[in-house]
Model the fold of this input.
Amino acid sequence: MFNITRNGLDAISKELGVISNNIANANTTAFKKSRTEFVDLYSKALSSNPKAKTGLGTVLQGTQKIMKQGSPILTDSALDLSVSGKGFFILSPKEGADPRFTRDGSFSLNAQGNLITTEGFNVAGYAIDEAGNRNFSAAVPLKVPLSIESDGKVLLLSGLNVNNRGVIETTYGLNTIIERGQIALAKFNNEIELKSKGANTYQATQKSGEQILGTAMSSNFGEILSGALESSNTNISGEMINLIKTQQAFNGNARILQSNVEVTRRLMG
Done:
């Protein structure tokens, strides 16, 4: 009986941790909530009679990410991006490191004109040359020059827009418009098996499969929305109900443990 109660308390404690993390990240951009998965335990009875086998409670088998898309939240920034449908933004943490993937499109330009995340990771895409030709051979860190020379004059970046295909359209001076690159997207055959790396980023695993590269609105990839960020998919009301139910289960197991201790004390007593 002690083992059953101990297993129950251990499993419920871990579930409380998962629920608390979901609630804590209810306002985190593009956060994906998790759920716990439990299995029951049975003792290895000496008797061959199945009825002689008794339960030993439960144990946490693992947690699973719920990759359901969050609702878009409108912002005033052209570089706040979200993907409506399939696709992850591709990030380059540092040279030589494995790429990371995210649904959090909180991007900006740094002093060098690099398109980066709030963590400073470079955002990858496909380069567009001066003639408007796209190079789809490899996804590279995207960069937007903050000024250009035209007819002997220096024109400063005066406007920027990202269309629904992820093409970055820049304006210099009054009306010089240049396409600077197209944001790349990645998808996976089994995205729930992506490994969380913190800061709303993931890495591919053997179970997730290798990344499949592409661009928005092609090959079953979603559409890129500019001026909108994906919200967390945590449902506060649902998580609070889960929290109450789990706390009740914890309290019930704790009372059983206390009763077992009291009975044992009396028997030894």
User: Anything to note?
Assistant: The mean pLDDT is 90. Residues 236-268 form the longest helix (33 residues). The first strand starts at residue 34 and ends at 42.
